[in-house]
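In this section we walk through a basic example: taking a raw amino acid sequence and producing a predicted 3D structure, encoded as discrete structure tokens. The instruction is simple. Fold the sequence below.
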Amino acid sequence: MRTLAAFLIAPLTPFIFGLTALLIDGSDTLFGVTGIITIIAYAVAIVVGIPAYFLMKKMNIYSLKGYLFVGALISLTCAIIYLFPSIFLINTVEGIVKFVGLFGSLILLIGLSIVSIFWIIARPDKSHKEV
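The resulting token sequence is shown next.
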């Protein structure tokens, strides 16, 4: 039951970031962007996160470090898929490095935040039964 709650709540993390920005300084642009990111987060959670969860469970990986590592791999893969076409639109190497560095880091931060919230709610380290 905790795992289901974690899958439902954790992808809301970007939306909560956006809501916080809206409440603090009225940044409705950021709020709109985080809404789109939240939709993408749910899609990634369904398509990649659920299979990753069952694979990690089968491999007896329950630690926060393990979850963060897998979350980082998933986030960086998403960043590469998202940012790769943008490389061809930027004229300078310096511009590419700044763009990819900034948005790649942001995607990684969001992904790790989602994975951390998931782990805190689901607590796979406490819920698995040792045989």
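Looking at the output, two observations stand out. The two ends are 21 Å apart (CA to CA). The chain is about 85% helix and 0% strand. In the next section we compare this with other chains.
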